[in-house]
């Protein structure tokens, strides 16, 4: 303890760790509690997956590029940080997105909500599905709801309700942007519980999603800049690092240990004699139950710990203290993205929309392409074009790791096939994100509850959160950071 202050160590300085720190500090101030926060990250900079690059007048995102505006935790945080005026929405003229099918771009049918049709006529007209496929989807109106309670796979659920064509040609490529996963392995309860709830309540997924859409009240966005008020996706004009920088500034008293990996968590109350002996010595010095060991040999006393590292890294740290089978059950998919900048004049192609996604059946290496400069006007100088191509998904874990020249050749080949672009880019930026997309397995919610209960019993004061738990999107990570901050502060 520092005086009477609780020492809290946060492992990981991504959005989960930073928002945990921010809400810890704010709540502690509100409650008049003294705390001392140390945040440790093996990376040299804060932000984790968030990584904005400013280059030659372009704003380039190497990780996430935006967030869903209806998930309010991030907008509330932006307001608390005083950066809401920096928010911006997508280009109103660049909203249409497409799905590639038989090497032709098909406009995403109007009314599609997360791949679920909610308007019948545009769905009936799409060239993405055969008549058989469309009729199969409409069977959803009459097929009885599943009688068993409990979790099932997202792919199993969607296939059962809407048929395999909708899954393979629409839902899977669309949702791949979020999970890059195999829908047959992802938990519906942990990813889109609203789908299962719609079936339960309305006996039909389509009916349920239509009703949700009607009932959904648009949140009050009047405090946002005009261009951001009605946009489904938002970002910051200077890129998502704006949020990281603002959080950094808002935590003046937080101690930072950057470029330092945590290599061990020691518990003075551990059963293991050697560990407990070392832990006891630490405790005698600091009065804190836990000691966090860093790669450089430094040892940080901690009364409470918040672990926000990805599940497989968290398991490495926690396994000596507590069974982490549930963390090991979360697979991660590796992805990479390739950003290409062009001179508009040399491109010979114009885009009407935000980009397209690609079903596996097309046999391409790229899984999606965002027409970044059309979707987000602030990202590029007016005479330039910015494209972002994605590679890697469950079933293709080779492409993200190809050497640069081979990866570029594969991407440029697909860019030529799909958009007939042959111009040489002005520059390219390749970002590999190994094991970056957590795959919530069937049963995930029960698993994480069990893990947390076990941790509360065996390692009280150590809390765990992050994208591996209850939502991978930035707003979900922020909401979870806020929740874990409250839990950590109130735990003894
Ligand atoms: P991370 O950002 O991974 O942070 C964890 C931190 O822990 C890292 O900084 C790491 O260095 C550190 N760490 C790990 N082990 C140790 C250790 N032993 N010691 C010290 N530090 C350690 N979400 C959206 O909302 N919108 C998007 O557009 C979007 N696009 C995405 C695109 C890609 C390519 C990816 C990969 C994700 C995307 N996401 C998006 C999801 C979102 O970016 C992530 O879920 C979120 O950023 C994860 O934040 P986090 O803090 O939980 O984890």
Structural class: alpha+beta
Query: What is the 3D form?
Result: globular
Mean pLDDT: 94
The unreliable regions are: none
Helix content: 25-40%
Describe the structure.
This protein is an alpha+beta fold and 492 residues long. 37% of the residues lie in helices and 23% in strands. The protein has helices at 15-31, 73-81, 120-125, 131-138, 154-162, 164-179, 188-191, 193-202, 205-215, 241-249, 273-286, 311-318, 325-328, 344-347, 372-375, 404-419, 444-458, 474-490, and strands spanning 6-11, 35-41, 52-55, 58-61, 67-68, 87-89, 97-101, 104-107, 112-113, 116-117, 233-236, 255-258, 262-267, 290-294, 299-302, 304-307, 331-343, 355-357, 366-370, 384-391, 427-439, 462-464. It is globular, with a radius of gyration of 24 Å. The two termini are 14 Å apart. Bound molecules: flavin-adenine dinucleotide. Residues 11-17, 40-43, 48-50, 63-67, 261-262, 308-310, 313, 317, 335, 433, 436-437, 466-467, 472-474, 477 line the site of flavin-adenine dinucleotide (FAD).
Strands, helices and their partners?
Elements: E1 6-11, H1 15-31, E2 35-41, E3 52-55, E4 58-61, E5 67-68, H2 73-81, E6 87-89, E7 97-101, E8 104-107, E9 112-113, E10 116-117, H3 120-125, H4 131-138, H5 154-162, H6 164-179, H7 188-191, H8 193-202, H9 205-215, E11 233-236, H10 241-249, E12 255-258, E13 262-267, H11 273-286, E14 290-294, E15 299-302, E16 304-307, H12 311-318, H13 325-328, E17 331-343, H14 344-347, E18 355-357, E19 366-370, H15 372-375, E20 384-391, H16 404-419, E21 427-439, H17 444-458, E22 462-464, H18 474-490
Parallel strand pairs: 1-2, 1-16, 2-12, 7-18, 16-22
Antiparallel strand pairs: 3-4, 5-11, 6-11, 7-8, 9-10, 13-14, 14-15, 17-20, 17-21, 18-19, 19-20
Helix pairs in contact: 1-18, 2-18, 5-6, 8-9
Bound molecules: flavin-adenine dinucleotide.
């Amino acid at each position: 303890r520092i005086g009477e202050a609780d020492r809290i160590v946060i492992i990981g300085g991504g959005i989960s760790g930073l928002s945990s720190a921010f809400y810890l500090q704010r709540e502690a101030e509100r409650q008049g509690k003294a705390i001392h926060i140390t945040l440790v990250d093996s990376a040299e900079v804060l932000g984790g997956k968030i990584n904005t690059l400013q280059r030659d007048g372009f704003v380039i995102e190497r990780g996430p590029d935006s967030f869903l505006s209806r998930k309010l935790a991030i907008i509330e945080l932006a307001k608390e940080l005083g950066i809401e005026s920096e928010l911006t929405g997508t280009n109103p003229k660049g909203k249409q997105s497409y799905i590639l099918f038989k090497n032709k771009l098909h406009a995403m049918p109007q009314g599609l909500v997360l791949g679920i049709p909610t308007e019948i006529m545009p769905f009936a007209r799409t060239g993405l599905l055969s008549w058989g496929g469309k009729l199969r989807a409409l069977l959803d109106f009459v097929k009885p709801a599943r009688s068993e309670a409990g979790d099932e796979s997202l792919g199993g659920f969607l296939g059962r309700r809407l048929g395999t064509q909708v899954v393979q040609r629409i839902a899977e490529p669309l949702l791949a942007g979020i999970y890059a996963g195999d829908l047959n392995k992802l938990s519906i309860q942990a990813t889109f519980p609203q789908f299962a709830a719609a079936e339960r309540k309305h006996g039909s997924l389509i009916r349920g999603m239509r009703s949700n859409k009607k009932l959904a009240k648009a949140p009050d966005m009047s405090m946002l800049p005009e261009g951001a008020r009605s946009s489904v996706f938002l970002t910051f004009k200077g890129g998502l690092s704006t949020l990281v920088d603002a959080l950094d500034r808002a935590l003046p008293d937080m101690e930072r240990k950057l470029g330092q990996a945590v290599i061990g968590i020691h518990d003075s109350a551990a059963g293991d004699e050697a560990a407990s002996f070392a832990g006891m010595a630490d405790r005698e010095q600091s009065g804190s139950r836990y000691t966090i060991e860093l790669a450089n040999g430094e040892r940080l006393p901690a009364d409470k710990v918040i672990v926000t590292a990805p599940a497989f890294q968290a398991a490495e740290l926690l396994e000596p203290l507590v069974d982490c089978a549930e963390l090991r059950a979360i697979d991660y998919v590796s992805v990479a993205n390739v950003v290409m900048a062009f001179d508009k004049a040399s491109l010979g192609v114009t885009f009407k929309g935000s980009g397209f996604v690609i079903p596996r059946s097309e046999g391409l290496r790229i899984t999606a392409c965002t027409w970044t400069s059309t979707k987000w006007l602030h990202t590029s100088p007016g005479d330039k074009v910015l494209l972002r191509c994605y590679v890697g998904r469950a079933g293709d874990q080779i492409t993200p790791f190809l050497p640069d020249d081979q990866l570029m050749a594969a991407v440029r080949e697909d860019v030529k096939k799909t958009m007939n672009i042959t111009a040489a880019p002005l520059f390219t930026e390749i970002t590999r994100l190994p094991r970056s997309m957590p795959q919530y397995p069937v049963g995930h919610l029960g698993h994480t509850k069990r893990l947390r209960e076990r941790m509360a019993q065996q390692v009280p004061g150590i809390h765990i959160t992050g994208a591996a738990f209850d939502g991978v999107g930035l707003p979900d990570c922020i909401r979870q950071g806020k929740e874990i901050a409250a839990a950590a502060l109130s735990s003894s």
